[in-house]
Amino acid sequence: MNELTHEEIEIRESKKTGWWVFSLFVFFFVIVIAVNGVFITVALDSHTGLITENPYEKGLAYNETLERAASQEKIISQPQYKDGVLSWQMKDDSGALIESATVKAKIIRDVQDGYDFTIELENKGNGLYEAVIEAPLPGIWSAHLSSKWDNNKHYQTVYKFITP
Questions:
Q1: Are strands 85-92 and 128-132 parallel, antiparallel or unpaired?
Q2: Is 114 left (phi over 0), alpha (psi -120 to 50) or beta?
Q3: What is the DSSP string of the chain?
Q4: How confident is residue 8, by pLDDT bands cut at 50, 70 and 90?
Q5: Are strands 102-108 and 75-82 parallel, antiparallel or unpaired?
Q6: How far apart (Å, rounded) are the C-alpha atoms in residues 106 and 154?
Q7: In what order do the strands lie in the sheet containing 117-125?
Q8: Ramachandran sector of residue 127 (left: φ over 0; alpha: ψ -120 to 50; beta: rest)
Q9: What pLDDT, in 10s, does the model give residues 58-85?
Q10: What is the CA radius of gyration of the chain?
């Protein structure tokens, strides 16, 4: 019988067959597909990228928006968020307190849809309006504050705050 030497045995054991190379290709593409699947899942579950509703129509009406912003009352406002309470103190441009306003806030989570809500701020006197904010998630929020008083006066501003 023909006996194999030690070197011949090592050469035969180290030879790679076509199936071994094929399995490496399959393994590589399975990894690529799995990573792409994770990326697609994260992309679909994250921010939609939509910043504003009806952007085309708002773009067409941009000059009207600028006119409304210019026509709003000139006031001194100091919104703030502390210990779960959103407060907004308002004074007119002469420094007189605005005490008879209807104040609303649309609370928006900029990075994720589905958690926005609207609240009305309660008049606490001395031009101070407050509301308790129970944010469903921690993070950065925007309060789109709007106030109306004396039948035709109005003011709007945006205040960003962080909830724990």
A1: antiparallel
A2: left
A3: --PPPHHHHHHHHHPPPHHHHHHHHHHHHHHHHHHHHHHHHHHHHS-----SSSHHHHHHTHHHHHHHHHHS--EEEEEEEETTEEEEEEEETTS-B--S-EEEEEEE-TT-TT--EEEEEEEEETTEEEEE---SS-EEEEEEEEEEETTTEEEEEEEEEEE-
A4: low
A5: unpaired
A6: 16
A7: 75-82, 85-92, 128-132, 117-125, 102-108, 139-149, 153-163
A8: left
A9: 899 999 988 888 888 888 888 999 999 9
A10: 31
Could you tell me if 19 and 25 are in contact, meaning their C-beta atoms sit under 8 angstroms apart? Answer: no
CATH of domain 73-163: 2.60.40.10
Residue ranges per domain, the chain?
6-45, 73-163
Nearest to 72 by CA among 159, 150, 154, 157: 154
Q: Residue 5: how many CB atoms within 10 A of its CB? A: 8
